[in-house]
Amino acid sequence: MHINKENYFQILKELQAAKATLVAVSKTKPVAAIKELYDLGHRDFGENYVQELIEKQSRLPQDIRWHFIGHLQSNKVKHIAPFVHLIHGIDSFKLLKEVNKQAAKNNRVIDVLLQMHIAKEETKFGFDENELLNTNWKHPARLIRSGGELHELKNVQIIGLMGMASFSDDMNLVRNEFKNLKHIFNKYVQPQTPNIKLQTLSMGMSADYKIALEEGSNMVRIGSLLFGSR
Ligand SMILES: *Cc1c(COP(=O)(O)O)cnc(C)c1O
Questions:
Q1: What does the alpha-carbon distance between residue 144 and residue 130 come to, in Å, rounded to a whole number?
Q2: Max Cα separation, the chain?
Q3: 221 lines ligand 1 (CB under 6 A)
Q4: How far does residue 149's CA lie from ligand 1's centre (Å)?
Q5: Using DSSP, how many helices (H) and how many strands (E) does the chain show?
Q6: Does residue 111 sit in helix, strand or coil?
Q7: How far apart are CA 221 and CA 230, in angstroms?
Q8: Of 4, 158, 198, 221, which residue has the fewest beta carbons closer than 10 angstroms?
Q9: Burial label, 13 (beta-carbon count in 10 A; 0-12, 13-18, 19+)
Q10: Ligand 1 centroid vs 151 CA: distance in angstroms?
């Protein structure tokens, strides 16, 4: 199995203009494929499953920046806390607190993104904007405005938002969902507090990253264009 180098260099070129980061999504793909991309100089890789991630992490070079992009269960955080670079899918305050706890145990500060629910589908995880404004302190995103209890979580840093558009051929729908996420991002980008510094907007996958870039993404998560279909 070989990676698609042509696509890789083409995508890098497109991202350069937008100063965006490429997270190469390697879920279900073998260590050899990751190593191939690594040897071209790539360091940011994304995985969805904890077990798979820790196994790959132990077998690959230690300077890889591992992004956890899947749905993370609280009881699994401890397995990735020692090394994970960025957790994209924080979708509850409970999970955020657990990341903070495990980060503290490892003597580090872990960067995270809040996952926003922007798609029409019910199945996608994440907050919606009402929850950002909800007076219920349990929603961490609201704390972006209030400061709230979040300042007590000294071992996490919220550095941005992540979202997935609807799985749809309707590119107008997809574009509007990205627009919406960018709009929310802009609204909360200020003020910056000690552990809330929104700077990363993770949106766009193989099928829709060009639209995502046009709508202001600065981090795309691309799998199949690089590694082939799953
Ligand atoms: C699998 C996955 C991707 C990559 O999808 P491709 O269509 O293969 O580019 C991106 N983001 C998340 C959250 C994923 O689960």
A1: 13
A2: 51
A3: yes
A4: 32
A5: 10, 8
A6: strand
A7: 15
A8: 4
A9: exposed
A10: 32
Give the dihedral of Cα atoms 210, 205, 182, 108; nearest 10 deg.
-130
Which strand (E) or helix (H) includes residue 198?
Answer: strand 196-202
Measured from the CA of 207, which atom of ligand 1 is nearest?
7
Structural tokens at position 174: 């997809």
Q: For residues 34 and 200, give the distance between their C-alpha atoms in angstroms, rounded to a whole number.
A: 24
Cβ of residue 25 lying under 6 Å from some atom of ligand 1: yes
Strand partners, 90: 114
Please work out whether the CB of residue 27 comes within 6 Å of at least one atom of ligand 1. Answer: yes
CA contacts within 13 A on the Cβ side of 143? 22
Return the number of other C-beta atoms located less than 10 Å from residue 24's C-beta: 25
Residue pLDDT tens, the chain, 230 long: 689 999 999 999 999 988 999 999 999 999 999 999 999 999 999 999 999 999 999 999 999 999 999 999 999 999 999 999 999 999 888 899 999 999 999 999 999 999 998 887 766 577 766 665 544 434 445 555 555 567 788 999 999 999 999 999 999 999 999 999 999 899 888 777 788 889 999 999 999 999 999 999 999 999 999 999 99
Instruction: Tell me the angle at which helices 31-39 and 50-59 cross, rounded to the nearest 10 degrees.
Output: 50
Q: Which atom of ligand 1 is nearest to the CA of 89?
A: 13
The residue to mutate among 25, 50, 181, having the most atoms of ligand 1 within 8 angstroms of its beta carbon, is: 25
Place of tokens 């924080």: 90
Instruction: Report d(CA 71, CA 90) in Å as an integer.
Output: 8
